[in-house]
């Protein structure tokens, strides 16, 4: 009896083995990377940061976690890792520490303490997420929004925080605001009662109306300040974009054997890469081609392929047959 059961199990396992064997190709091409937050610019909060050791290389690194606070990805956690024990690792880590509102320690032994302090403070930032073709995430801190903030730890809390922010915006008081009524009269809101507004025009006449009937007049000085703030933010984002591009360029240059210095900026390194080699498209990865084209490097494209000899011979035969037919036609 037991022997029969065992044999039956062996037969079933054998059946599964054949079916699993049929999956060999798809199993080998499986994507082992987990889906993460898509590339883009997000409002994020430092969720965690800790010093750890790379499982593959054994080098010290910082593991970062950023919680997305707004948008469709609200509540998702993006992770990236900064290796410390590399030539440019300390430079990039120092940049991030400063952008998160902390001072870079003079002694690297204090680094672990600073990272723990950042995790405790949970600063809120605007950041850019880039995702490599292998699914690895790289995060760039664009600007600091809040140096220290109450930690948001769950998807639900993040959603509630976003709803509360929207509600606060909706409930903003208009009391004392300069408004324009739908009939074109410029008035001041002197009272809010029961969802209605009491407004007063320049002659002292008072009217009652709904908030939908008026438009708030913007203060020219405030508009100018907002425009200046937007321009500054755009300049900062552009500078951050250049920093990210420099990081990519440094990695590319090192891989290609191009000399790199700590003092190199984007322009200097670009010129060196332009002068170092004649870069051929068919010897570069797609991402490398896009990187070099993005900084204005002229690439050598492969020459058009010559037609195969067989194709030439076939063309000659066809041409001879056509000539013979023409001669026959003349007779």
Features:
331 residues; disordered C terminus; elongated; 43% helix; five-stranded antiparallel beta sheet; disordered N terminus
Put the structure in a nutshell:
This protein is of the alpha+beta class. The chain is 43% helix and 22% strand.
What does this protein look like?
- This protein is α+β, with helices and mostly antiparallel strands and 331 residues long.
- β4 and β5 form a beta hairpin.
- α6 packs parallel to α7.
- The longest helix has 37 residues.
- It starts with a helix and ends with a helix.
- It is built from nine helices and ten strands.
- The N terminus and C terminus are likely disordered.
Distance N to C terminus: 95 Å
Radius of gyration: 33 Å
Secondary-structure element sequence? HHEEEHHEEHEEEEEHHHH
Roughly what fraction of the amino acids lie in strands?
15-25%
* Class from secondary-structure proportions: alpha+beta
Shape designation: elongated
Q: Helix count, per DSSP?
A: 9
pLDDT < 50 stretches: 1-12, 30-34, 326-331
Q: Mean pLDDT score, rounded?
A: 77
For the biggest sheet, the summary is:
5 strands, antiparallel
- The percentage helix is 40-55%
Total beta-strand segments? 10
Physical arrangement of strands within the biggest beta sheet: 3-2-1-4-5
């Amino acid at each position: 009896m037991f022997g029969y059961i065992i044999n039956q199990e062996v037969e079933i396992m054998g059946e599964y083995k054949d079916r699993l064997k049929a999956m060999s190709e798809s199993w080998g091409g499986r994507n082992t990377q987990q889906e993460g937050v898509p590339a883009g610019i997000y409002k994020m909060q430092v969720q965690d940061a800790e010093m750890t050791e790379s499982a593959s290389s054994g080098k010290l690194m910082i593991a970062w976690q950023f919680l997305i606070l707004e948008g469709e990805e609200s509540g998702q956690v993006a992770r990236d890792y900064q290796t410390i024990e590399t030539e440019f690792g300390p430079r990039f880590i120092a940049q991030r520490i400063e952008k998160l509102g902390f001072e870079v320690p003079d002694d690297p032994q204090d680094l672990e303490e600073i990272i723990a302090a950042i995790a405790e403070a949970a600063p809120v930032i605007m950041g850019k997420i880039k995702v490599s073709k292998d699914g690895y995430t790289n995060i760039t801190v664009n600007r600091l929004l809040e140096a220290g903030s109450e930690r948001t730890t769950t998807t639900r809390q993040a959603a509630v925080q976003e709803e509360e922010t929207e509600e606060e915006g909706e409930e903003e008081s208009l009391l004392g605001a300069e408004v324009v009524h739908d009939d074109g009269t410029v008035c001041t809101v002197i009272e809010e009662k029961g969802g209605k507004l009491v407004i007063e025009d320049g002659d002292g006449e008072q009217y009652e109306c709904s908030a939908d009937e008026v438009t708030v007049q913007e203060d020219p000085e405030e508009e100018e300040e907002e425009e200046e703030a937007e321009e500054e933010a755009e300049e900062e984002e552009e500078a951050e974009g250049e920093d990210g591009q420099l990081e990519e360029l440094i990695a590319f240059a090192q891989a290609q054997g191009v000399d790199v210095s700590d003092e190199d900026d984007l322009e200097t390194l670009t010129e060196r890469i332009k002068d170092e080699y004649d870069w051929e498209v068919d010897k570069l990865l797609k991402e490398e081609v896009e990187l070099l084209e993005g900084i204005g490097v002229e690439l050598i494209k492969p020459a058009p392929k010559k037609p195969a000899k067989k194709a030439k011979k076939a063309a000659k035969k066809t041409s001879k047959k056509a000539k013979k037919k023409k001669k026959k036609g003349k007779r």
